[in-house]
Amino acid sequence: MSYTIDTTQEEQININPATVEEEVIQNLWFLYSSIEYDVPLDRALGLNATYIDKPIETAKALATTDIYDKTEQYEPRAEIVNIDFSVDYERGILKPIVEVEINGEYDTEEYTE
User: Fold this and answer.
1) Rounded Cα distance, 27 and 21, in Å
2) CATH class of 2-10+18-102
3) How much is the pTM?
4) I need a surface site. Which of 29, 38, 46, 97 has the fewest CB within 10 A?
5) Domain boundaries, given as residue ranges, for the chain
């Protein structure tokens, strides 16, 4: 089953997610909504801002690469199916909309923190 992480929408943070899927989706939303160096205890968490002020197509390519790398590093339980972007050309805003699948390796019964 695939899930869509839409960073154009605000999400409430749930301190105690009920399922592994909910936890992974929340983690990915936070990862894709954050900028590198903004998270105090993990400065690498978040997307790299090097694509700011680049042409939109260049920014999409750089952001796509970064999304794949950061997903693999921070949330290996997810596999990316598709990456799309919400683009506001007038204001120069690019926000990712990522479709992922949760790996079957992490069943609810086997999952431990």
Assistant:
1) 10
2) alpha beta
3) 0.85
4) 38
5) 2-10+18-102
